[in-house]
């Protein structure tokens, strides 16, 4: 159920203040340290950010998708690593449990996820399995009430801090997605090892690492849904996750436009602010138009999702358009700042690198295109 307008407006105002006053001043530090300060993570816990999407009965705020998208847009206005600190708990790390968990599983885990006492990760990708995610090779072999889980998961966000993994593993002989099941795997089970975090292009402060499972004894009680449900669960999780990422892209684009406009109005060349040169104005106009279009698509899709509509196509379209859009907006922002756009003292250079990821994870742009085409052909319009 949606929050009343007053409560939601107060939440947005609080988030906006938190982003502007607490997070933005720390952006350069997060980049340099490749870490979000623990004190900030504590403040996020106190604000209830880890439980945005989790029902109030489990201690979360129970936001609708429309509300969550608005919050995600606000977090887009700063370094994406801040959102990632709580993003897996709100999205891909918890939603398998929310969608397919039993009452008992929810009772055990959701309150701790909502409070941020534990961190969750979503483990689908493997060294040889990326876009073709139905082909997971990680195996879970059942023996009585225990599965033995073995395999390697790759590029797992927040693996370095995670206490609980949602792991997709093959349980049946059937090829493709139908042989895949989903499991809740606590990090402290014997046989779980976390790799060294990867060095990467951007989004410093948000870590990814391999997760290795060597004959890990996972209780039957930790399986999400029935055997063979895992791939379907993962895809449902990603439907929601894609919309959330699209909303973040809108926020980053709005931030980049604000930065570019501020620079263009103060920087003077040929005797006037560069904002008065029409070729600069064209870049601003293109960025603004595209950001508005992405915002409208994201919020419209969120409303439809809240109404219970099938939004597989629209979520993919929102992720595809918004992530490509923010790439173009970041490129234009660098151009508007000229040499300064290429220099690390200005946030634009950092955001330019940060946004590249949005076109790759939770399904690449090519995978979104395939989904959009498949669903359009299915609908016939
Ligand atoms: C920073 C980061 C964080 C991540 N976090 C997570 C996480 O938390 N959990 C998780 O499970 N995974 C995570 N991932 C993995 C991410 O989802 C995958 O990298 C992504 O899905 C692409 O898979 P791949 O890297 O194996 O590329 P590949 O699938 O090998 O694709 C390579 C290229 O081929 C293209 N391609 C593939 N198939 C087709 C096709 N049928 N038609 C046309 N083109 C195609 C792709 O679009 C891409 O351009 C993360 C990745 C990164 C970099």
Q: What Rg, in angstroms, do the CA atoms define?
A: 21 Å
What proportion of the residues is helical, as a percent range?
Answer: 40-55%
Order of helices and strands: HHHHHHHEEEEEEEEHEEHHHH
Biggest sheet features: 4 strands, mixed
Quote the beta fraction: 5-15%
Structural summary, described in words:
The mean pLDDT is 97. It is built from 12 helices and 10 strands. Strand 9 and strand 10 form a beta hairpin. The chain has 381 residues and is of the alpha+beta class. The strands form 3 sheets. A 4-stranded mixed beta sheet has the order 1-4-5-8. 50% of the residues lie in helices and 15% in strands. The site of flavin-adenine dinucleotide (FAD) has 20 residues, from strand 1, strand 3 and helix 12.
Précis, in short:
The chain is of the alpha+beta class. The protein has helices at residues 5-23, 27-33, 38-47, 65-75, 80-90, 95-100, 103-115, 230-266, 278-306, 312-337, 347-354, 365-379, and strands spanning 120-123, 139-143, 146-157, 164-170, 180-186, 192-194, 208-219, 223-224, 268-269, 272-273. The protein has twelve helices and ten strands.
Topology:
Blueprint: H1 5-23, H2 27-33, H3 38-47, H4 65-75, H5 80-90, H6 95-100, H7 103-115, E1 120-123, E2 139-143, E3 146-157, E4 164-170, E5 180-186, E6 192-194, E7 208-219, E8 223-224, H8 230-266, E9 268-269, E10 272-273, H9 278-306, H10 312-337, H11 347-354, H12 365-379
The protein binds flavin-adenine dinucleotide.
């Amino acid at each position: 159920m949606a929050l009343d307008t007053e409560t939601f407006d107060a939440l947005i105002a609080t988030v906006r203040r938190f982003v502007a006053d607490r997070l933005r001043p720390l952006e350069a530090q997060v980049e340099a340290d490749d870490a979000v300060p623990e004190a900030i993570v504590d403040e996020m816990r106190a604000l209830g950010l880890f439980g945005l999407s989790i029902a109030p009965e489990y201690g979360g705020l129970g936001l609708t998708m429309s509300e969550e998208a608005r919050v995600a847009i606000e977090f887009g206005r700063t370094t994406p690593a801040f959102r990632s600190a709580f993003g897996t708990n709100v999205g891909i790390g918890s939603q398998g449990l929310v969608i397919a968990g039993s009452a008992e599983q929810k009772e055990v885990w959701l309150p701790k996820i909502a409070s941020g006492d534990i961190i969750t990760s979503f483990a689908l990708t493997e060294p040889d399995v990326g876009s073709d995610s139905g082909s997971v090779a990680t195996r879970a072999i059942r023996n009585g009430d225990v599965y033995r889980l073995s395999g390697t998961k790759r590029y797992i966000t927040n693996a370095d801090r995670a206490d609980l993994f949602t792991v997709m593993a093959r349980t049946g002989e059937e090829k493709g997605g139908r042989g895949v099941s989903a499991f809740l795997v606590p990090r402290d089970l014997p046989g779980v090892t976390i790799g060294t975090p990867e060095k990467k292009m951007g989004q410093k402060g948000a870590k990814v690492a391999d997760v290795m499972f060597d004959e890990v004894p996972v209780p039957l009680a930790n399986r999400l849904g029935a055997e063979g449900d895992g791939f379907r669960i993962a895809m449902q999780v990603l439907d929601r996750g894609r919309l959330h990422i699209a909303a973040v892209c809108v926020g980053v684009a709005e931030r980049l436009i604000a930065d570019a406009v501020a620079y263009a109005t103060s920087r003077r060349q040929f005797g006037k602010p560069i904002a008065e040169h029409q070729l600069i104005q064209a870049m601003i106009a293109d960025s603004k138009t595209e950001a508005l279009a992405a915002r409208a698509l994201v919020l419209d899709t969120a409303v439809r999702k809240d109404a219970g509509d099938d939004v597989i196509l629209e979520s993919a379209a929102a992720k595809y358009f918004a992530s490509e859009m923010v790439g173009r907006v970041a490129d234009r922002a660098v151009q508007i700042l000229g040499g300064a756009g290429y220099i690390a003292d200005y946030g634009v250079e950092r955001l330019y690198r940060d946004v590249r990821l949005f076109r790759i994870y939770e399904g690449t742009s090519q995978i979104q295109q395939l989904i959009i085409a498949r669903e359009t052909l299915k609908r016939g319009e």
